[in-house]
Amino acid sequence: xxxxxxxxxxxxxxxxxxxxxxxxxxxxxxxxxxxxxxxxxxxxxxxxxxxxxxxxxxxxxxxxxxxxxxxxxxxxxxxxxxxxxxxxxxxxxxxxxxxxxxxxxxxxxxxxxxxxxxxxxxxxxxxxxxxxxxxxxxxxxxxxxxxxxxxxxxxxxxxxxxxxxxxxxxxxxxxxxxxxxxxxxxxxxxxxxxxxxxxxxxxxxxxxxxxxxxxxxxxxxxxxxxxxxxxxxxxxxxxxxxxxxxxxxxxxxxxxxxxxxxxxxxxxxxxxxxxxxxxxxxxxxxxxxxxxxxxxxxxxxxxxxxxxxxxxxxxxxxxxxxxxxxxxxxxxxxxxxxxxxxxxxxxxxxxxxxxxxxxxxxxxxxxxxxxxxxxxxxxxxxxxxxxxxxxxxxxxxxxxxxxxxxxxxxxxxxxxxxxxxxxxxxxxxxxxxxxxxxxxxxxxxxxxxxxxxxxxxxxxxxxxxxxxxxxxxxxxxxx
Amino acid sequence: xxxxxxxxxxxxxxxxxxxxxxxxxxxxxxxxxxxxxxxxxxxxxxxxxxxxxxxxxxxxxxxxxxxxxxxxxxxxxxxxxxxxxxxxxxxxxxxxxxxxxxxxxxxxxxxxxxxxxxxxxxxxxxxxxxxxxxxxxxxxxxxxxxxxxxxxxxxxxxxxxxxxxxxxxxxxxxxxxxxxxxxxxxxxxxxxxxxxxxxxxxxxxxxxxxxxxxxxxxxxxxxxxxxxxxxxxxxxxxxxxxxxxxxxxxxxxxxxxxxxxxxxxxxxxxxxxxxxxxxxxxxxxxxxxxxxxxxxxxxxxxxxxxxxxxxxxxxxxxxxxxxxxxxxxxxxxxxxxxxxxxxxxxxxxxxxxxxxxxxxxxxxxxxxxxxxxxxxxxxxxxxxxxxxxxxxxxxxxxxxxxxxxxxxxxxxxxxxxxxxxxxxxxxxxxxxxxxxxxxxxxxxxxxxxxxxxxxxxxxxxxxxxxxxxxxxxxxxxxx
Amino acid sequence: xxxxxxxxxxxxxxxxxxxxxxxxxxxxxxxxxxxxxxxxxxxxxxxxxxxxxxxxxxxxxxxxxxxxxxxxxxxxxxxxxxxxxxxxxxxxxxxxxxxxxxxxxxxxxxxxxxxxxxxxxxxxxxxxxxxxxxxxxxxxxxxxxxxxxxxxxxxxxxxxxxxxxxxxxxxxxxxxxxxxxxxxxxxxxxxxxxxxxxxxxxxxxxxxxxxxxxxxxxxxxxxxxxxxxxxxxxxxxxxxxxxxxxxxxxxxxxxxxxxxxxxxxxxxxxxxxxxxxxxxxxxxxxxxxxxxxxxxxxxxxxxxxxxxxxxxxxxxxxxxxxxxxxxxxxxxxxxxxxxxxxxxxxxxxxxxxxxxxxxxxxxxxxxxxxxxxxxxxxxxxxxxxxxxxxxxxxxxxxxxxxxxxxxxxxxxxxxxxxxxxxxxxxxxxxxxxxxxxxxxxxxxxxx
Amino acid sequence: xxxxxxxxxxxxxxxxxxxxxxxxxxxxxxxxxxxxxxxxxxxxxxxxxxxxxxxxxxxxxxxxxxxxxxxxxxxxxxxxxxxxxxxxxxxxxxxxxxxxxxxxxxxxxxxxxxxxxxxxxxxxxxxxxxxxxxxxxxxxxxxxxxxxxxxxxxxxxxxxxxxxxxxxxxxxxxxxxxxxxxxxxxxxxxxxxxxxxxxxxxxxxxxxxxxxxxxxxxxxxxxxxxxxxxxxxxxxxxxxxxxxxxxxxxxxxxxxxxxxxxxxxxxxxxxxxxxxxxxxxxxxxxxxxxxxxxxxxxxxxxxxxxxxxxxxxxxxxxxxxxxxxxxxxxxxxxxxxxxxxxxxxxxxxxxxxxxxxxxxxxxxxxxxxxxxxxxxxxxxxxxxxxxxxxxxxxxxxxxxxxxxxxxxxxxxxxxxxxxxxxxxxxxxxxxxxxxxxxxxxxxxxxx
Lengths: 479, 479, 447, 447
Ligand SMILES: Cc1ncc(COP(=O)(O)O)c(C=O)c1O
Ligand SMILES: Cc1ncc(COP(=O)(O)O)c(C=O)c1O
Known about the structure:
The complex is a heterotetramer, with 2 copies of chain A and 2 copies of chain C. Chain A is of the alpha/beta class. Chain A folds into 3 domains: about 10-60, no CATH class; about 85-340, Type I PLP-dependent aspartate aminotransferase-like (Major domain) (Aspartate Aminotransferase, domain 2); about 345-470, Aspartate Aminotransferase, domain 1. In chain A, about 35% of the residues lie in helices and about 10% in strands. In chain A, the strands form 3 sheets. In chain A, strands 1-7-6-5-4-2-3 form a 7-stranded mixed sheet, sandwiched between helices. Chain A has a 3-stranded antiparallel sheet with strand order 10-12-11, covered by helices on one side. A two-stranded antiparallel ribbon of chain A has the order 8-9. In chain A, a hairpin with a 2-residue loop joins β8 (about 300) and β9. Chain A is globular, with a radius of gyration of 25 Å. Chain A starts with 7 loop residues before the first helix and ends in a 6-residue tail after the last helix. In chain A, about 65% of the residues are buried. By secondary structure, chain C is α/β, with parallel strands linked by helices. Chain C folds into 3 domains: about 10-60, no CATH class; about 85-345, 3-Layer(aba) Sandwich (Aspartate Aminotransferase, domain 2), CATH 3.40.640; about 355-445, Aspartate Aminotransferase, domain 1 (Alpha-Beta Complex), CATH 3.90.1150. Helix content of chain C is about 35%, strand content about 15%. In chain C, the strands form 3 sheets. In chain C, strands 1-7-6-5-4-2-3 form a 7-stranded mixed sheet, with helices on both faces. Classes of the chains: A alpha/beta, C alpha/beta. The complex binds pyridoxal-5'-phosphate (PLP) (2 copies). One pyridoxal-5'-phosphate binds near residues 75, 135, 216, 241 and 282 of chain B.
């Protein structure tokens, strides 16, 4: 059952159309200045509807999906995406709304924004929210710009943002786009922030300390409260990259950690589908003090009516056009309401249990660079296997042959040859065992026949891809 | 990317549930006589929603589908199933209707039945219709029962139904369930009904002559008008098995052929999806004379309102509970309206062109037992290949390795080792060529290395299945 | 040339294909068809664009009214909740667009699902064998009678209670009118609503080859299958179940020794959908397997010894056995059977029981409230989620209910002339107790 | 233990997992978390059942109103027909539920689709390279300015016309307020609505590293990119397109030598969806590829030499380059880019042109009808499917329109204080000429 599929352009043949369009009666085309008029679009495809459907369905079959099996990409929270949420997000009463419509006519959608904000505030203990950011990185940037503006308003010139060495790449990237310089703080041998090091660098030039909780090693920052105190003592803010909120949602209140701002990824903790890399959404939640700086527009409730307001003089302004990722927001709200408080707490508990099960079952076979307790994910390294010339990437590729998606590899950067495994709570023990079994077999293969691993995968639609060639050739479009 | 999947029962583990159900407050369970009360259902599965979704999606991946490639099953008309039709059929205003509702409240659905009836009448030139039959075979049976009743009313005792030797198995089966004896009429060397033979057997004991037009060899019965005259001259009726209507819809009017009754398969010509073997629908269309015998209930229009009526004293009665396959009927109506008259005519033309293209491209490689003109399908045989010990079934299996679905094999029965190929109009030349290429390669393989064909398929989720063992073991449920 | 988005043959392809075939024009390919059969102009109008189709069907849908919570209509089709995964799975193209699994090697998914369906039906009914679906409960019932006839060497009569679904009885009558089968009808006990067990012995004379009972019957009353079985002795006992959810709470027919258990499985994941698609199930004893109508999936192994599933015993079917087949069925209700399989997998052991209890409890709550309000519940027999009540003036009841948007049930006089002013009331988990008071008000004696 | 259908860990599994891990209770796994951080009781209410969720969202949806045919709102988001296959394809689980394609061997489908997307964007814009999507047109525009800044060795000023989408200008202002970039604003010609070409030369002083223009601009007017290009010389020219359908009819920015073409592709298969998801596109010259923000898919071969697709040049991206990355973007709008790809594949060469012509013709028909009725169309410049008209009392217009269920467009005073009583009117293929008369009536001088 091989599926091979040429490019849509290669399948095209003249004189086909995939849509019925009636000719127009009135034509004003003759009014167009001929120097402006375009000829036909060269190379543009021509196909019928059945061919288009087939083309994309064949392509779909070349992808692995969460609905097919465990997808333990660390830091990505690849959980089940409930079918119900797709259904409600598909209502035309949401899809067809134009953002420039009269507010009277969009009370339903405003209420959805408002409800989700309220729920996120309850779940985080924070004071104010914006749902505008289009993804986690966009949320980070938004938050950092708010901090920047806060200090600008106060007339303070703070030029630094502190970042964990285990932080996700978006953290430093966002900080620098917001015009800050970044300083990296090392982790200790226990995989937690080096508090002593922090104390040394923390001063009145530092605007923000960015923390990921639990950090990208899956380890909870035991001293988070102290860390916050240190930062606050110098007038700085603490940011929480909430990409890992799944591990403590409805169990621990972020506000209790001393966090001033955070983002959450609706496409992680709140189960909106990743769609191959987006759209997601990265709402930002802040403490009272920072509320005036939230981006516009904001949704406000007045006399039982909802309205959009841009009337926030201290706001950092717009961070994108129109509003947030509405269809994502609808799904997240449906998810939270479907889970309820008890359910969400269970999410945290089971995702942590599942990660610890994997840790326990694999720790004899793979090197565990940091031994502190794991929450929702566990990071191994390829240290044992490197002796046989096998890397984390080889292991990742070989897993594909076992019908299992790979973990995240080579991240966090502080672990050489990292294998970062996050199962989520929506994996059954049966499926975890399937993954564990595959990992163990691969460990054994590496002992006995490392070649089969180094040359993997063997059963995928294409074999190992030459990424170096791609970067050299830079053929990034069909011609 | 192997996908293996245990049975749902094997995946089950105690204490799981796939749906949220609140406990009930009031309980009357104590009123049940304990001898009537059931214990738990032994072996019943217990799973969560993500596991159920994954189970069935994995199963889905083991199936080949029309959306993945050509599916040239002869007699089955595996054409593209438009996405739009799924959308309209999914409207809750259709799905949630109970058939015992007040007629006032179901005017929309009644109008759908009525409109589809009208369109089918226009497309066939017949006088009256029923949309009740649940499939083609059910339509056949309905029609035959009508004929039976017609003669019973007239007091004529006609005990025979004539059937082509190339007829589909449902034809004789339906006739005998309706209480008729069947007589088979041979085809000539040209693959058409032996009119001389018909003249011999046609007498006043014959109620019905069942014709498939074009017949299952894909050959048009050139003498259909004469055949009808012969049958009519002895007071018999002519039935058209309209499974092959795709080849002449909107181009030829069945009524002009002298047909008295026919069925059409909405799941063939009118593109409703086959769903793995149903549901389909087999509306029956008849000439005026037979209208009184149509099954009840019927949809009638009175003063601009639609209603359901059972008030037809000569009707054969009910043929199933409630009404027809409503959701299928909705799709068929959407299809016909989307195609329009010109579009449907084009359907007939292109499906015939495609079949002839395949015929032309393969006739050097495979034996063509009947040389008459092909309409929408072409029947080859394995005659050439049998010399190498390879059968039509082997060829069918080998095709799967080329990522192509097999044609129908071993039918029609009058062709030894038949390969019955029906491409439909929704295949592009590119896809036809992929099929042709595969067939030619297989022909060559049979010359050079027949073993690879005899042991095929090699790349499917399971290899060649042992059907004999299945029939011997008769393990038809999990335990 | 006329172009349509559903037809890939574009201008260039058309030329190429015609050239390859060696004709100038497609009409040359229709040479074998007599000229006079062709029509000149398309018999129907022109194609509608997508938005026109959408608008039309939305308009048509909006001409229908329905209510889930305020409807008490049952009578063979039940309003149950359909979990979203059911439609999601049945909409996957690899289920939706496939044909009958003639090539098992690329159809293991649907074959395994149907094997699971068969197993679930066996577990529910407590029988040994199930086929892979028939059109609906009524035709499944007819097939059961035909099957019994094939199996039994006894007479030509089938005994059937009047409390069996009217459509099923009608359908049987239509089918047997062509054959030498007679029907003997059995009355119900006016007190309990059960069949008249006492007179059953006499009814079951020598010429009776099969006895069919429905349980819960058309009036919602659970029959005493144990008693029926002991009286029917060596006669084939067919038990019809139109509300299969009852089997999650009550002992199933198989437990009492039924020979054939058949009926309608629509309750499990199919919308009422104005009566179709439905799905007929048919389960029986292992010993009768060769007489089974319809498709049957069996376990086997592939060339490498790996477990695999195939359609089996097709020697019973029309495509092999032709006029001597056990049935003429070809296309069946596979996708509906898949919906049932998904539904039952989701509810599972614990969920289905809970659901059944919810149905039972709500129906009994309403019945109690009605009795307390002085409304007569006609039958004393045990019921599951459906029961009959008597009203003074049924026309008024319907009129009153209509005003408040309630569908109060089925007027039994529609099918039983002599049952004037009787209402068949069905209660499922979709009926919220909050609305019961309103319903009671409509029926209250003193309206 | 609390059970939820979305969590597979049942009672037995929980026991097995705890035992394997070696703890009695899950809370033991949270030992590393300080006690005082835990909350006692769930911070939100209990789970709703499916039917409750459905009801809630249907209610919320019904609190929104919309009209397709009777809306004339555009302004950066356009109401276009979305063919059913678009949602069908983007709903396939193998597209919907997948992550960023980090493992190309099992992601060829999405990688190839994104490669096709990049190609389509290049073809449309007549550029050489496109990335695989950004959040929306506004952020894509910001990224373009940042990119230009990286590329250009010139000063710190970007020149931007006031006729560029107000949200885009606002977003840029937000972003650059942290950086050393200044904005110089350019006026429009009050007659034509085009930017003031004559004064452009002077505006483009030495410190200007980039000039951005939007075409069609926010007022719907098609800019003279050829003239702009020849004046802007070696300054990076960014052309913003928020109605990309215009490029099927008008010569695209690439034809005139734009350096960066960016904007919003929502017109191609995305519902307005109250402003999200949208999709920002960004195309440029091959020579600037290393400065591109966002993901980029490239062709390569696999171990067997077979063509394959991978994400490439990731050394530009945050996960490698961290604080020196070309952008902080990680999650982008892949599924939206897939929708665009499906949409453009369906319409294709001929369909997209027809669609553009339809938009153009209908907009011009309405403009003509308005002019004939004495309504002033503000600008004389060429327009595609959107234009500005002047009314006497815009409040009255909106009130009157509201009564007949028409959304007449955007009140420009919302974004341009000095443009009182100006209405931005957008006309697409969804606007039926039958309704134009009614629209004209509302605007007619003598109301
Ligand atoms: C720890 C962490 N931070 C930030 C991000 C960025 O989020 P997004 O991809 O939504 O921009 C991610 C996403 O992978 C992450 O894992
Ligand atoms: C020629 C012919 N007649 C009748 C039938 C029976 O139709 P159905 O499967 O809908 O019962 C078929 C279906 O395969 C057929 O091909």
